[in-house]
C-alpha cells in the first residue's frame, strides 16, 4: 500500500496506551499503525521525539458568528479567526455555541452557518442549536440535522438572550428528542433574587459571590431531577463547584460532565486581584476548594470532557467596571499549552488528556470518525513537544480581541503540528492554508430517508 503520509517514529497516544510507532494515512484517514519504514509514502513526517495525540477537540467555543446580524466581526472574533486560533493551538475540531446575534435556533440559521463554514473554517466545526421557549416543538428535528453536536440550553442567563429557566419548559425540552442535551446550569431565579448584590458595583470578586455555589448547585439539582424523570441524557457544561461534582457522580447513568481549563488553572481571589475583569466568566472562577475538587474529579473519572469556553469580548467590554464587565474568557488557542503544563506538572497523563479532549467529547456528543487514533478514523493529530518550554504571549493570539488571561504563563509542552484529515495545517506556529475545515459529523444525524 502507498500512503499519502506517514508519521514516523512518534510516541503515539493510542486508546490502549502509548506506543512508539508509525502511522500511515490514506485519503484523510488512518490506514495503518506499526513499522512502516519499508512502505511507500508520498510524504514522511519525522515525529521522533514528539508525542502524537488524537486530534484534540474543544467542545465549547463561542466564535461569535454572526454578530449583530453580520458575518465575520473583525474586532472581536469570527469563524475564520477563531478556527485559525484553534489550529495554532493544536485543536482539530471545535463545537461552536449558538448564543450569537441572531442566535442559532432554527433550521434556516443553521443552514446559513453551515454554508458559511465552507472555505472559511481552518478546523472542523460542530454546531450547537439553542433551545428557546418558542422552538421546543422543532428541537427533535433540529437535533437530527447534519453537523449538529447538541441542543444547548441556557437554564440561567449569560451572554446573549437564550434562556429556558422554568421546570415546565425544561421538561418539555427534555421530552422533545433523544440526543444528549447540553446545559448551562445556573438557577435563574436565584440569580435574579441576588441581583441587589450587583446593583452597587464593587470588586470583580463579587461576581463569584453573586453567581454563588448554591446558584450552580441548585441549577444542577433541578436539571438532574428532570433528567431522571424524563430519562433524557444530560451533559452539564462547565461544572464549577465541589458540591456539583460529588452530586453528579450519583447520576453517571444519565449525566456527563464538562470542566473548564479555567477552573482547573485559576483560583479566587488571586485571579480577580491579578486579572480584574479578565477573570470574569460564568460560572465564575471560585476558591481553591472547588479547584481541588475539579482535579479530584479529573483523577477519579467523574469528568468526561475538558473544554475552554472560549468566549471573546472586546477589551473595552472586559474593562468596564463590575458588574458591567462582559463575562467570558478567550481560550481555544491556549487550552492545549495550558493542559500540557498540567501534564508536565504531574496532574494528569497524556492518555487522560486524550480521553478528556478527544475520546470524551466523541463519546458524549456522538462525534463520527474522530476522537481516537485507530484504523479508519480521520487522520487528525495534535503533535506536541513535551520538551518545549514557552511563554504564552498576547502577540501569539490570533483572535482579534487580542488578549488571553494566560499571558505570561510559562508552559512545559507546546503543540508543534496540527494535522487535519491528513493535511498538516499548522507547523511551528504557522498556519498552512487554504482553510480546509469541514462541518463535523455526528452519529445518527443528517440521515436522509
Ligand atoms: O462567561 C461566559 N461567557 N459564560 C457563558 O455562559 C457565555 C459566554 C459568552 O458567550 O460570552
Helix and strand topology:
Elements: E1 2-3, E2 5-14, E3 17-26, E4 29-34, E5 40-41, E6 44-46, E7 51-54, E8 56-61, H1 79-88, E9 91-96, H2 107-117, E10 124-130, H3 139-143, E11 148-154, H4 167-174, E12 181-184, H5 188-193, H6 196-199, H7 206-210, H8 213-230, E13 234-236, H9 242-248, E14 255-260, H10 261-265, H11 270-275, H12 288-300, E15 305-307, H13 315-319, H14 335-344, H15 350-365, E16 381-391, E17 410-420, E18 423-427, E19 430-431
Parallel strand pairs: 1-5, 2-6, 2-7, 8-9, 9-10, 10-11, 11-12, 12-13, 13-14, 14-15
Antiparallel strand pairs: 2-3, 3-4, 7-16, 16-17, 17-18, 18-19
Helix pairs in contact: 4-8, 8-9, 9-12
Write up this protein.
The protein is α/β, with parallel strands linked by helices. The chain has 2 domains: 2-52 and 377-387 and 411-428, Urease, subunit C, domain 1 (Roll), CATH 2.30.40.10; 55-365, Alpha-Beta Barrel (TIM Barrel). Helix content is 29%, strand content 24%. The chain has 15 helices and 19 strands. The protein has helices at 79-88, 107-117, 139-143, 167-174, 188-193, 196-199, 206-210, 213-230, 242-248, 261-265, 270-275, 288-300, 315-319, 335-344, 350-365; strands at residues 2-3, 5-14, 17-26, 29-34, 40-41, 44-46, 51-54, 56-61, 91-96, 124-130, 148-154, 181-184, 234-236, 255-260, 305-307, 381-391, 410-420, 423-427, 430-431. Strands 2, 3, 4, 6, 7, 16, 17, 18 and 19 form a 9-stranded mixed β-sheet that branches. An 8-stranded parallel β-sheet has the order 8-9-10-11-12-13-14-15. Strand 18 (423-427) and strand 19 (430-431) form a beta hairpin. Helix 9 (242-248) runs parallel beside helix 12 (288-300). The radius of gyration is 21 Å and the shape is globular. It starts with a strand and ends in an 18-residue tail after the last strand. (4S)-2,6-dioxohexahydropyrimidine-4-carboxylic acid (DOR) is lined by residues 62, 99, 158-159, 184, 281-282, 311, 327-328.
Amino acid at each position: 500500500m502507498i500512503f499519502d503520509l506517514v508519521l514516523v517514529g512518534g510516541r503515539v497516544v493510542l486508546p490502549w496506551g502509548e506506543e512508539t510507532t508509525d502511522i500511515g494515512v490514506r485519503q484523510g484517514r488512518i490506514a495503518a499503525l506499526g513499522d512502516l519504514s519499508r512502505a511507500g509514502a508520498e510524504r514522511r513526517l519525522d515525529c521522533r521525539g514528539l508525542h502524537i495525540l488524537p486530534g484534540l477537540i474543544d467542545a465549547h467555543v463561542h466564535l461569535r458568528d454572526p454578530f449583530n446580524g453580520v458575518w465575520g466581526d473583525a474586532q472581536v472574533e469570527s469563524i475564520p479567526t477563531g478556527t485559525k486560533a484553534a489550529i495554532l493551538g493544536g485543536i482539530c475540531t471545535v463545537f461552536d455555541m449558538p448564543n450569537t446575534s441572531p442566535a442559532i435556533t432554527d433550521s434556516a440559521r443553521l443552514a446559513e452557518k453551515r454554508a458559511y463554514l465552507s472555505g472559511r473554517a481552518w478546523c472542523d466545526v460542530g454546531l450547537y442549536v439553542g433551545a428557546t421557549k418558542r422552538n421546543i416543538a422543532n428541537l427533535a428535528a433540529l437535533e437530527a440535522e447534519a453537523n449538529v453536536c447538541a441542543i444547548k440550553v441556557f437554564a440561567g442567563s449569560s451572554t446573549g438572550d437564550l434562556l429556558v429557566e422554568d421546570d415546565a419548559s425544561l421538561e418539555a425540552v427534555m421530552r422533545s428528542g433523544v440526543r444528549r442535551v447540553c446545559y448551562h446550569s445556573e438557577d435563574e431565579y436565584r440569580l435574579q433574587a441576588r441581583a441587589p448584590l450587583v446593583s452597587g458595583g464593587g470588586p470583580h470578586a463579587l461576581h463569584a459571590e453573586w453567581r454563588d455555589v448554591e446558584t450552580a448547585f441548585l441549577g444542577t439539582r433541578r436539571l438532574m431531577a428532570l433528567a431522571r424523570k424524563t430519562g433524557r441524557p444530560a451533559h452539564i457544561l462547565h461544572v464549577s463547584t465541589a458540591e456539583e461534582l460529588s452530586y453528579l457522580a450519583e447520576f453517571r447513568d444519565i449525566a456527563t460532565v464538562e470542566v473548564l481549563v479555567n477552573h482547573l488553572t485559576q483560583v479566587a481571589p488571586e485571579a480577580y486581584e491579578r486579572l480584574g475583569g479578565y477573570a470574569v466568566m460564568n460560572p465564575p472562577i471560585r476558591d481553591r476548594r472547588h479547584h481541588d475538587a475539579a482535579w479530584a474529579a479529573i483523577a477519579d473519572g467523574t469528568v468526561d470532557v475538558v473544554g475552554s469556553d472560549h468566549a471573546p469580548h472586546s477589551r473595552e467590554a472586559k474593562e468596564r467596571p463590575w458588574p458591567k464587565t462582559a463575562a467570558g474568557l478567550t481560550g481555544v488557542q491556549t487550552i492545549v499549552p495550558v493542559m500540557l503544563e498540567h501534564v508536565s506538572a504531574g496532574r494528569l497523563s497524556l492518555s487522560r488528556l486524550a480521553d478528556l479532549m478527544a475520546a470524551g467529547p466523541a463519546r458524549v456528543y456522538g462525534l463520527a470518525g474522530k476522537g481516537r487514533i485507530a484504523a479508519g478514523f480521520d487522520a487528525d493529530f495534535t503533535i506536541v513537544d513535551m520538551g518545549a518550554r514557552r511563554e504564552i504571549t498576547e502577540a501569539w493570539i490570533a483572535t482579534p480581541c487580542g488578549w488571553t488571561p494566560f499571558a505570561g504563563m510559562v508552559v512545559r509542552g507546546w503543540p508543534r503540528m496540527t494535522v487535519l484529515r491528513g493535511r498538516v495545517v499548522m507547523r511551528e506556529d504557522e498556519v498552512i492554508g487554504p482553510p480546509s475545515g469541514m462541518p463535523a459529523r455526528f452519529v445518527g444525524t443528517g440521515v436522509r430517508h
